[in-house]
Specification:
The longest helix is centred in the C-terminal third of the chain and has 28 residues. It is built from six helices and eleven strands. Strands 1-2-3-5-4-6-11-7-10-9-8 form an eleven-stranded mixed beta sheet, with helices on both faces. It has one domain: Zn peptidases (Aminopeptidase), CATH 3.40.630. A hairpin with a 2-residue loop joins strand 2 and strand 3. By secondary structure, it is α/β, with parallel strands linked by helices.
Length: 294
């Protein structure tokens, strides 16, 4: 099933040259100009396409696609081009549905983009590159893993042959992100928490994001979360193979994993994650301004 205005969201390379970035064909990964949308995929994807058709700041593209049997699956990319400022635009990658049974992140990205479409000044100084469906087969099957049975969030930068990981690694390597936020939901947690990867900047962005999101859902203040030692909902360590920038990228972008409690109401998870994203953007803008004055 393909939304009627799908073509309206396709990028014009002359207007949006980054849409063609990293376009080299990889084995069993299709780079066709006509994305493929399985029925369940369209439920999440169609609102993004509709928004891109009506918002001049938002442009849709295909990060890549791949075949499973006789079906082609697409990983879409939607870029919100914020109003320019006196400093170069900061490029922030926002990722959701890395686990196929965690839809709240995708809808949080949509909610954020809808807010920005009405108030584009909130994105001033940013190019926000959004990947709402990173695991299309897992989403279609409502499973954490992809159809090959692999947890994609343990596969990055480990020589994975999974096509989703190959596509996303290419994006991570070529888009030049200044920051990365991955949205997840944890069915074993009763509250919000996040991974700061042991870096001060990450923690300084995550702390206010958690505080702001507590207007909607409580924070998980356990001393152990997801098997790691935690303090006030913040974990410094992390699993190997999670979605992350290339190991050799310098300077390192900020990296945050924001987790909502999966057993909470979907609309509450969406609201909390959207608030967290807005807060991170606001706080990072303040950090940029402070650094410019040093």
């Amino acid at each position: 099933m393909r939304p009627n205005n799908c073509r309206a969201a396709s990028p014009d390379a002359a207007v949006f040259p980054e849409a063609r970035r990293g376009a080299a064909t990889l084995p069993y990964i299709s780079e066709g100009t006509e994305p493929a949308f399985p029925p369940k995929f369209g439920e999440v994807f169609a609102p993004f396409v509709e928004l891109a058709g009506s918002c001049r700041h938002l442009i849709g593209a295909e990060a890549g696609s791949f075949w499973v049997g006789d079906r082609r699956y697409t990983i879409p990319r939607f870029t919100f081009l914020g109003p320019p400022t006196a400093v170069p635009q900061k490029r922030i990658g926002l990722f959701a549905l890395i686990h196929g049974d965690e839809p709240a992140g995708a809808y949080a990205l949509l909610k954020l983009l809808q807010t920005l479409a009405d108030q584009p000044a909130l994105a001033a100084g940013y190019d926000l590159i959004c990947y709402p469906v990173c695991n299309p087969t897992g989403h279609e099957d409502a499973t954490r893993h992809n159809r090959a049975g692999r947890d994609l969030n343990r596969e990055f930068w480990r020589g994975s042959g999974q096509p989703e990981v190959i596509i996303l690694e290419r994006e991570l390597a070529t888009q030049g992100f200044d920051g990365i936020v991955a949205l997840h939901a944890d069915d074993a947690s009763d509250g919000l928490y996040g991974y700061a990867h042991g870096r001060v900047l990450n923690e300084n962005l995550l702390v206010p994001a958690l505080r702001a999101s507590e207007r909607v859902l409580p924070r998980n203040c356990g001393c152990v979360i997801d098997g790691f030692r935690a303090a006030d909902g913040i974990i410094g360590d992390c699993f190997t193979g999670v979605l992350a920038p290339p190991p050799a990228q310098k300077p390192r972008p900020f990296e945050i994993i924001f987790e909502t409690p999966a057993r909470a109401l979907l609309e509450e998870q969406v609201a909390a994650a959207a608030i967290a994203l807005e807060t991170i953007l606001t706080e990072y803008r303040g950090f940029i301004a402070y650094a410019a004055d040093l």
